[in-house]
Each structure stands twice: as structure tokens, then as C-alpha cells.
Predict the 3D structure of the following.
Amino acid sequence: MSKIVDLKGSILSLTVLNLFSDQIDETKKAIAAKIEQAPDFFVGIPIVLEPQITLKDPTFLALLVEYLTQLQMIPIGIRTEDEAIKEQAEYAGLAIFPREKLKNRPKRTKNEPEEGLKTALMVKNSVRSGQQIYAKDRDLIVMGSINPGAEVVADGHVHVFGKVMGKVFAGSSGDTQAKIFAKQLNPELVCIAGMYQLSEDIDESFKNGFIEISLNDGKLVFNPGLLD
Amino acid sequence: MSRVIVVTSGKGGVGKTTTSASISAGLALKGYKVAVIDFDVGLRNLDLIMGCERRVVYDFVNVVQGEATLNQALIRDKRTKNLYILAASQTRDKDALTQEGVGKVIDDLKEDGFDFIICDSPAGIEKGAQLALYFADEAIVVTNPEVSSVRDSDRILGILQAKSKRAEGGDEPIIEHLVLTRYNPSRVETGEMLSVEDVTDLLNIKLLGVIPESEQVLNASNSGQPVILDEDSDAAHAYMDVVDRFLGEEKEHRFLIAEKKGLFKKIFGK
Ligand SMILES: Nc1ncnc2c1ncn2[C@@H]1O[C@H](COP(=O)(O)OP(=O)(O)OP(=O)(O)O)[C@@H](O)[C@H]1O
Ligand SMILES: [Mg+2]
């Protein structure tokens, strides 16, 4: 039988689920079989989908996301250039990651000048529900808040001068030295270089006032003391 | 100079049409020439709330499709001078509106000397809502004091920043205002509803006003008149304040605190 799915580490240090079939049932079965080998490993991991085929069934992604969520995985995004898949992804609530290799020159986007110094990407307002910001190869500074349902991703550090109530990913291409700084933290998820923590796993005492999050020995460390 | 104002919310049934009708009437009472457009194609009800449903001959879709002129379709309000309604179609589907066609109607209204063009948006964040906000100079975001409504308003604010004509052209961004409606201070006190501060903290835009939950709203819409004209109701006063603040007046916010129940009310209920 040909390969149905396989799992590999990615440049984002997020787990990538490669899809080789556009049949939802057989894909679900193959995933279930994978998980049986190491059930604990998959609970709560952020997953990025990478279809290697075109997805003709318009409900495929939504069904897959639902299934992964049932299995307690956290599907966060998709890597694709296919416009039809991107549209599906939007309905399924998935972030779209650019598909180019890490070594390639970063693609120019509205926010990023092509030439010159790669200073931090600066967002002057709050990032609102449904919005995603990606600071490729650089830091991200958000002057407002990360509202619930919003998501920010940076390859470098993330600084938030308002409240973090959505999802934050720092060091998303694997930089374990990346940090997250926030004026106040009550996030849906924080993640550095693939290590993440959900709100309920974060001690309440870290949810008042300034906080610095870093990665130490594969663990997220919360440090509130920096300002005094 | 004409201003185009979208009344939008994301979530459905929060009070967009009620707010559009009252603000339009309020601005017209102040002497401005106002057109209010129902973008909710297929579900028209602005004309019901304005009490002109029996006078709709041509609608917004007819104009956009070139089947009628703007002058044929604009319905003059019977109570308030300077107020005109452009009804939605009940029989067409929502793809009948095109961006080009809507742009032309708005340009024509500007040319006709309308001071304010109020766009009553359909619910949702899809095409219909995006079309209603596309040409806006200002937005009035209508929110109820509950989590899902606030979340949707946050979402629509993101879309205002990204998908409007102003955003695409790199012009000055749309000016954003918040109207918090169906506010019930005693339910806020018991923690059943979000408080004004909870909502403004998250959305972080300027609060135009708080409209209390009021039975008068339903009575007014059943009798086909914008609630702002019902001088006995708190909702009318609250909407009048909204209009004043919209026109730049500083006014203290009211209707934020629960009215203490007197002994009489305690004994006999409400
Ligand atoms: N302040 C208020 N107090 C009590 N009821 C209200 C208030 N505002 C609106 N309502 C009621 O809420 C219902 C929905 O109002 P309305 O039609 O204005 O909402 P909408 O946002 O336009 O809805 P849709 O998304 O369907 O277009 C109506 O029954 C209306 O009478
Ligand atoms: Mg409505």
C-alpha cells in the first residue's frame, strides 16, 4: 500500500502532517494508526498540515481539523500555495504558512521592505480576532494587544505592549533562544521553538503584570521579575 | 462633504438595523440630509422598522442593476424631513449586488448632496458584510455585552482595517465607533453580562454610547418608527446622545447603573 500520511519535524519546529490522500476516511484511519504507536506524544501538539495532493473535497480540511481536535491535537496552520486549498483553510480556521524553504530569500509582503536592515516588524494596533501576523526572519513588536482568536508568529522574539489573549509563537523556525515579552499574559497558547503551553497549564500568578517567557532545557520558563 | 457610515457587527441580531434607523432619523432631525441603505438583501427589514414597507416600488438591487433610477427608488420618510430610505430586495439573492454597482449608487448619493449615507450591514463577515463596509469613511460597530458578540465585533474591526476601500488605497483608516446595545445594568452587576469596561478594554475603540435593553424598542419597530422618536423611552435618549456624540458633542455616558428597585417594585415585581 502506498503511503497515506507521514510525520516529520519541520523548519517551524512544529510537527508537520503530510497528506498524500484526498480521502478523509482513509486519512483518518492512517492517523489513528500512527497515534496508536505513541498516544501520549500527540496530545496537545500543534500541527501544521501539508497537502502533497490537490484536495477536491471542499469539506476535507474542516473534517480533518475536527478529527485532529478530537484526538487532542491542535491543528494551527497549513503550508500550501494552492489557492483552492487556502480558501478551504480559511474556513477551517487554519493559518497559512508560506511553503518556501528556510534558506530562500523571504518573499516580499506588504509589511516587509525587501532591502536593508531587518529590524523588527512593528504592529501599531491590537491584533484582532481572526488576524494573523508573521514576522519572517525577524522580531515582532505589537504596540496593542493580541486579542482572543488572533495569532502572531515570529522567527525571532515577540514583544507585546498590551495584553496577550490569543496565540503567540516565537522562534518559529527553531530558534530556541527566542523569547516572548508581554505586559500582561492570559493567552490561548504560547510557543517557543515548538514548545508550547496552553492557558490552563500556566500558573495564575504569571497572569498579572509583566512577564518574560524563555525556553530552558526544553521547558518554557516564566519570569515576571524583570522590571523591578 | 458626504460621509459614508457603515453600521456593522459580525454577529446577527444585535441591533444593527435598530441602530441604523435611529441614527439616521436622529441625524435628519438635526437638519442633515440622510440616506439609509439596507444591504441585507433577501431579508429586508429596515423598511419595516422605518414604517415604509408598503411604499417600496423599486429597491437597492433595482438601482444597482440599472432597472430603476436612484430617484425612483429613494423613499422619502413621512415623519422626518431630509430622510430617505433605500430598501433591500426581498426577492433577489445576495449576489445581485456588485461592488461596482454599489460604488456608483454611493457616488450618485454624494452628488445629490446627501450629508450622511448610512449602510445597514447584514450579519456575518462574508461578502455581503464586506460590501456594506467597503466604501465606508466611518464605522459604527454594534455590540451586545456578551462574549460571542464582542469577539465578532473584534473580527469585523480587523476586516475594516484590511478590506475596505480606504485600507486598499492606503488612505486614512476608517474611523471606528462603538455602540453597546441591549445593556442591562442589573445583569451586569450579577455577572451575567459583560460590563462596559470589559467590552471597551478588549475592543479599544471610542464608545459612542450605551443603549439600555428596553421593551420600547420592540414596540417602536412593531409600530414602524425608529425608537429614537419615542420621547418617553430611555433607548431614545440614549440614541439621541449617540447622535450628539457622533456630531462631536461631549456628553457624559448614562444608563450604566441599575435602577434601584423601590419597595413598591420589590413587592409587586416589575
Ligand atoms: N436596546 C434594545 N432593547 C431591546 N431589544 C432590542 C434592542 N435593540 C434591538 N433589540 C431587538 O433585537 C432584535 C434584533 O434587532 P435588529 O434587527 O436591529 O438587529 P440586527 O443586528 O439588524 O439583526 P440582523 O443581523 O438580523 O440584521 C429585534 O427584535 C430588536 O427589537
Ligand atoms: Mg438587520
